[in-house]
Specification:
493 residues, alpha+beta
């Protein structure tokens, strides 16, 4: 049959080209595809204008949500340093200290109320900085992406003796001293330093005096005659250190990017932030359509973060098979690693709920460090209700060499639950605490104390959801081999 210009004379349809592959349907694009984002339309694989817009809106949304989940570690550091500065603790000079401990007037992710906190921010923009740490401190220094830089104090190189830590800016090429300092070279300019000083025999004044006698922060250039520390008592001060979960989150993230070297995080993450308009050296000014998309993305990202924190679908977060207690440290890695795998949900859970990271948090050894367990539910799996009364029994002997503590947190803020009780919890150092015959304790949670249980009662508020953290300071072997397990919160009445 004769052919003319690739068409058969009989049918008028294109003839098969001489060089034709076997074409699997799975590699082709249909003319119409119905999806969750709408109906996508193509002409022989080429998207129509509406499909182009849908695709770009979706990738902007996805990257905006990913930036929220990935970037919350960085904006958390930013929010801490911003909040401290608003409270009067200036970077590179100020030292915040909770002289009368922390309480719910300060918005701070999951603090404890039993130890004196020392908080300060360092910015290495202008050169190396020295942080002088007092004896018997305990805590980490983290960088602008909440990556661990070093511990100070008992678990740091000073081994609890105190000492001077020298932090060197990224890319610094100047001469450094050969001795007298514990030197660290972080990847970022901004650092957050926070350590605890334990209170012995209830003597807050002595713990505070120990800090004020030794702690300082100053440029290396002033090491020969360092200035005195500018201490700010943060106890009872209303200030916020929690990152945003609306569009302003991206403005916080942009402020971080502008302060840091271009390679402060890996190239893929730099590219993620740049893909939504956050680039070093450029203004962040998204067009109205992108701003609307990002506003929606952060709302869904926040929903994911809350689902991941309050209803984790990873069974490995459960510490005990028959209990409601959980941990974000799946596999015991402070870097949230399981072999070559980054545990993305575990990382997101930690940085949405908590402040600070150090290997000592996830890799405690019997008798040292701290162990943490979180619960958001009662023994029947229901969210905790501030208007109901629960009883929690810690069977004895409780495996804590130093002491144990239970602290309640507001589900909204992940900070201390506002009540009429300053401590927002209870601990084994509390005078008058009633213990059981086995050396354990039963603690009551509710709006009012059961008769006769005032010493073992933690107040909650009707209409407020809350979560609870158990801390064991100096956890002992029964915690690690799980021959000891805390009870669940059991609903009363």
């Amino acid at each position: 049959m004769a052919e003319v210009q690739g068409q058969t004379m009989k049918t008028g349809r294109p003839a098969q080209p001489t060089y034709t592959p076997d074409l699997p349907a799975r590699i082709t694009t249909p003319d119409t595809v119905k999806t969750r984002v709408g109906t996508l339309r193509f002409r022989d694989g080429a998207p129509d204008p509406a499909t182009v817009q849908l695709a770009y809106d979706q990738i902007d949304f996805s990257r905006g949500m990913a930036a929220f989940v990935r970037g919350m570690s960085a904006t958390s550091v930013y929010a801490i340093c911003r909040g401290l500065e608003e409270a009067g603790v200036k970077p590179n000079g100020g030292i915040g200290i909770t002289e009368q401990l922390m309480d719910a007037r300060s918005l701070f992710l999951t603090p404890n109320t039993t130890t004196v906190y020392v908080l300060q921010c360092v910015n290495l923009h202008d050169g190396p900085m020295v942080v002088r740490v007092p004896p018997r401190a305990l805590g980490p220094v983290d960088d602008a992406d909440f990556r661990w830089v070093t511990d100070v104090g008992v678990t740091g190189p000073d081994k609890g003796a105190g000492g001077d830590y020298l932090f060197v800016p990224p890319g610094y090429t100047g001469t450094l001293p050969q001795q007298g300092f514990h030197i660290a070279k972080p990847r970022t300019n901004r650092l957050v330093v926070f350590y605890r000083v334990f209170v012995e025999q209830g003597d807050l004044a002595a713990a505070t005096a120990q800090v004020k006698a030794k702690a300082a922060v100053f440029p290396l250039a002033e090491a020969a005659t360092p200035p005195a520390g500018a201490f700010v008592n943060l106890s009872g001060v209303r200030f916020n250190t929690i990152s945003a979960n609306d569009f302003s989150f991206y403005e916080e993230l942009n402020a971080v990017v502008q302060n840091e070297p271009a390679d402060w995080v890996d190239p893929d993450t730099v590219g993620l932030y740049a893909s939504i308009g956050i680039r070093k050296g450029q203004p962040f000014a998204p067009a109205p359509r992108l701003k609307a998309t990002l506003t929606e993305a952060v709302a869904v990202g926040n929903a994911y973060a809350r689902a991941n924190a309050f209803a984790s679908r990873d069974p490995r977060t459960r510490i005990f098979k028959e209990r409601q207690w959980t941990t974000p440290f799946v596999g015991g890695s402070y870097q949230f690693l399981s072999g070559a795998e980054r545990l993305l949900d575990a990382r997101a859970q930690f940085f949405y709920l908590a402040t600070g990271i150090t290997p000592a948090m996830s890799d405690a050894k019997p008798g040292t460090g701290s162990a943490y367990a979180l619960t958001v539910r009662d023994g029947d799996g229901r969210y905790l209700d501030g208007g109901r009364t629960y009883a929690l029994t810690l069977p004895g002997p409780i495996p804590a060499r130093n002491f144990w503590a239970l602290t309640v947190y507001d589900n909204q803020t992940r900070s201390l639950l506002p009540t009429d009780q300053k401590a927002a919890g209870i601990d084994s150092l509390l005078p008058g605490l009633k213990t059981n015959a086995d050396g354990g304790a039963t603690v009551w949670f509710g709006p009012k104390p059961p008769p006769g249980q005032e010493a073992n009662w933690v107040q909650t508020m009707p209409g407020k959801g809350y979560n609870l953290i158990l801390r064991l300071y100096g956890p002992l072997e029964p915690w690690f081999n799980q021959t000891w397990q805390p009870g669940d919160l059991e609903l009363q009445g």
